[in-house]
Amino acid sequence: MAVPRNFDSIILDVDGTLYRQAPVRLRIAIRLAAACITQPLRTRRAIRAIRAFRESLEKLRSTPGSDQPAEQLRLTAKRTKMPEAHVRSLIEEWMFERPLDLVGGFPQKGLHRFLRLAIQHEVRLGVFSEYPAAGKLESLGVREPFAAVVSSFDPEVRRFKPDPAGFLHAAQLLGSSPGRTLVIGDRDDADGAGARAAGMQYLRIGGRDFPSFEPLCGHLFED
Ligand SMILES: [Mg+2]
């Protein structure tokens, strides 16, 4: 695989890139199962809302729109026949707040070394995530290295990947041009397609070439 050249900033995806998503989702599923006993009605609604919320995101990826996070909420409310305010409260609790104490337990292998090397090489760092990311960075103990923390929920973005808006906004905050920005993510149809639409280079993590940050450290910084 070609070595990316001439980049002065890196924009990273968060979920499935900075931390391993499968063990976090498994533990959330276990907590949901436990909550089904203590709060059966609310928890069953939460399960329906989470499923519809995720499906709505995938649907909206291919649908241009002016405010996709608002549309995701509307679509989820429609699919689950619940008021938007109720959906929002369930999603905030189960998708945004409750995973926070888990995320820090499953950093992607080599993450901290990778960030150290990037800083040593004077590469500026940002994240662009569909969902609010600052709490997850705190949980992983890596908030500090990131000069730009961008989410689709930000007023300047309001678009999901693969729309390039979030990548371009992050690059602007980092003071970098698209041609000198490298995107690293775990989904080619979201991170990769978004990077290409923004005119940025892209590397996929989690596949055969780069299963974690460990091989990426040598590939990008130590040759
Ligand atoms: Mg991801």
Word description of this protein:
The chain is of the alpha/beta class and 223 residues long. The model has no long low-confidence stretch (mean pLDDT 96). β4 (181-185), α9 and β5 (201-204) form a beta-alpha-beta unit. It contains ten helices and five strands. It has two domains: 9-19 and 106-221, 3-Layer(aba) Sandwich (Rossmann fold), CATH 3.40.50.1000; 23-102. The protein is globular. A five-stranded parallel sheet has the order 3-2-1-4-5, sandwiched between helices. It has helices spanning 21-38, 40-61, 68-80, 84-97, 100-103, 111-120, 134-140, 165-174, 188-198, 213-221; strands spanning 9-12, 124-129, 148-151, 181-185, 201-204. Bound molecules: magnesium ion (MG). Residues 13, 15-17, 185-187 line the site of magnesium ion.
What attributes does this structure have?
alpha/beta; Rossmann fold; 5-stranded parallel sheet; 10 helices; 53% helix; binds magnesium ion
Strand order of the largest sheet: 3-2-1-4-5
Termini gap: 14 Å
* CATH architecture identity of the largest domain: 3-Layer(aba) Sandwich
* Helix content percent band: 40-55%
What fold name goes in the CATH topology slot of the largest domain? Rossmann fold
Number of strands: 5
Mean pLDDT, rounded to whole units? 96
Instruction: Report low-confidence residues grouped into runs of 5 or more.
Output: none
> In one word, what is the shape?
globular
The CATH homologous superfamily of the largest domain is called HAD superfamily/HAD-like
- Write the element-wise H/E pattern from the N-terminal end onward: EHHHHHHEHEHEHEH
Radius of gyration in whole Å, from Cα?
18 Å
Bound molecules: magnesium ion
Tally the helices: what do you get?
A: 10
Could you describe the largest sheet, including whether it forms a barrel? Answer: 5 strands, parallel
